[in-house]
Known about the structure:
2 strands, 50 residues, DUF4295, mainly beta, 12% helix
Amino acid sequence: MAKKTVASLQTSSKRLTKAIKMVKSPKSGAYTFVESVMAPERVNEWLSKK
């Protein structure tokens, strides 16, 4: 069986959150995904930005 590699988002006692947002391209109309790793307090602020 193949083993999956699991990335740990906890480094030296800092809690981090990975946020994924769908963004629509103005040119083609296709959706793309934007990923970012940040502190949990900043997630709502980042998601509300356009």
